[in-house]
Structures are given as structure tokens and as C-alpha cells.
Design a protein that fits this description.
284 residues, alpha/beta, 41% helix, binds guanine
Length: 284
């Protein structure tokens, strides 16, 4: 039976560390500030944004949500971002994804000042990550790496298999695992004989958005299984990309949904915002 990796507990530890750091910044007259840009009224995005604002409040980070109509043009949205880039009270900018179909997300993300890109999605920051240079790292993969570290998982030489190739999770986590000396394989929806790869994984990270996609018989006994999914099954019940019931019988460690990767993502966003505020104020 697998040990459950509680993202909730590790996120609490991260937040406690951040509270100390934010206290020190406040003594120096610096209050970290995050601005979230929300376009349209996607229901899941509203919940995510609310949770981000709550997390800021709990830590004493100033947060502001800029709500924009789903009909806003790309150039108008980019103008809003330019104003935030120039606003000295704003340390971090996050544009909640997905954006409406008529807007090119890459053009919008590249309009964000890379120094304020707390999501780590700007091409410059993604490129720096690929080169192994310290930078703003995307929050979900950064949170996964922290969980692995806190749980004492040995990464050097391990076979890591990532299922999913998104810019938000799949690609950046592959880079981070590579930097941590794993042998990394990236699989995706077109991969032939997927289980021949997953069965060989000492560390398996699944970020496909497909409910219960990975079953227990696709997992190597004793593996560390990280489930990034936030899906709903055929009965509308919240579930992950990994079928927990069968997987926990085989895996050594497994993240639950909810309470696994999710809380870590938000904690890392807070951490990146503090990092942005320190860099902005020239504090080491
Ligand atoms: N939508 C889903 N996940 C994320 C995320 O990590 N950042 C942003 N900006 N939007 C998202």
C-alpha cells in the first residue's frame, strides 16, 4: 500500500517559511504584491483566482484581481499588461489561463515583464529553465520538485516518465527532473504502448487532463506517482489522471486528488511572488 504524499502538509511548511520571509520584508518597508488578470467568466478559473487571492491574504501579500470582459481584444489586454509592467506597486503578474479563443496566449504571456512573470510562462523564463539557469519556474512543476525533495525521494539516476507535454506542466517538469539527474522520458497522447514506458518509471508524473487515465497495472511496484490531474469522472466526482484505488496498491508513494499537487502550486506562486518582490527591491 502506497504512502500518501500530502501536498497540503508540505504547502503548510512552505507557507510558514514564507510568513517569516514576508515579515522581514515588511520590516524593510516592502509588501509583496500580486496582480491576477482574469479574462471572461470561466467557472474553474474563477475558483482558482479566488484561491490565489485567499492565499495572498493569509500570508500578508497584497493581491489585486483585474477582471476583464471575455470580449476584450488582444491589443487591449496587452495594453493592460503594459500598465501593470510599469506599476511600481506590482511585483508579480499572473494572467489566468485559458484565455478566450480569439486571443493568442503566447503573445499575451510574452507581453509580461519577465521580472514580474511569477508563473514562469514567459519564453525568456521557460528558456532559462531549459538552460538550467535560475529563474522564475512554473508553479506546478516547482511544487512537485519540492514535494519530491521533502519526501526524501532519490532522483539521481532514477527513471522519470512524464505523461503530458504542456508548457505549464509536462515540458517544465521534464527539464527540472533532468536537472535533478533523472533519466527523463516524455510521453503523450500519441505515444504507442504507453504502459511499456510507465511500467519502467521510478518516478511517474501524470498531467494529461484525462480522468483515471493511468491504472495500477501500468505502474512499477514501489514507484513514486505524482498525479497533476483535477478531473471529474463519469459521475461528476472529482478525480485525478491516475486511478487512485488501483494505483495505491502498487505505488510506493502517491499524491491524492485533492490535497496533493494543488496546494503546492499555490504555495509556489506565493514563493515566486516573494522572490519577485525581493528582486524588485534589490534584497538578497
Ligand atoms: N490555468 C491552469 N493552471 C494555471 C496556472 O498555473 N497558471 C495560470 N496563469 N493559469 C492556469
Amino acid at each position: 500500500m502506497a504512502t500518501t504524499l500530502s501536498g497540503k502538509d508540505i504547502a503548510k511548511k512552505v507557507n510558514d517559511e514564507l510568513l517569516v520571509e514576508i515579515d522581514k520584508l515588511c520590516d524593510l518597508g516592502v509588501t509583496p504584491g500580486l496582480t491576477v488578470v482574469l479574462v471572461g467568466d470561466d467557472e474553474a478559473s474563477q475558483i482558482y483566482v479566488r484561491n490565489k487571492a485567499k492565499a495572498c491574504e493569509a500570508l500578508g501579500i497584497e493581491s489585486n484581481v483585474v477582471r476583464l470582459s471575455r470580449y476584450i481584444s488582444q491589443s487591449e489586454l496587452i495594453e493592460v499588461i503594459k500598465e501593470l509592467n510599469a506599476d511600481n506597486a506590482v511585483d508579480g503578474i499572473l494572467v489566468q489561463l485559458p484565455l478566450p479563443n480569439h486571443i493568442d496566449p503566447d503573445a499575451v504571456l510574452e507581453a509580461i515583464d519577465p521580472k514580474k512573470d511569477v508563473d514562469g510562462f514567459h519564453a525568456l523564463n521557460a528558456g532559462r529553465l531549459m538552460q538550467g539557469v535560475d529563474t522564475f519556474e512554473a508553479c506546478t512543476p516547482k511544487g512537485i520538485m519540492r514535494m519530491l525533495k521533502e519526501s526524501g525521494v532519490k532522483l539521481r539516476g532514477a527513471n522519470a516518465v512524464v505523461v503530458g507535454r504542456s508548457n505549464i506542466v509536462g515540458k517544465p517538469i521534464a527539464m527540472m527532473l533532468l536537472k535533478a539527474d533523472c533519466t527523463v522520458t516524455v510521453c503523450h497522447s500519441k505515444t504507442r504502448d504507453l504502459s511499456s514506458y510507465t511500467k519502467n518509471a521510478d518516478v511517474l508524473v501524470v498531467a494529461t487532463g484525462i480522468p483515471n487515465f493511468i491504472k495500477g497495472d501500468m505502474i512499477k511496484p514501489g514507484a513514486v506517482v505524482i498525479d497533476v490531474g483535477m478531473d471529474h469522472d463519469e459521475n461528476g466526482k472529482l478525480c485525478g489522471d491516475v486511478e487512485f484505488e488501483s494505483a495505491e496498491k502498487v505505488a510506493g508513494f502517491i499524491t491524492p486528488v485533492p490535497g496533493g499537487v494543488g496546494p503546492m502550486t499555490i504555495a509556489m506562486l506565493m514563493s515566486n511572488t516573494v522572490q519577485a518582490a525581493k528582486q524588485h527591491a534589490n534584497i538578497k
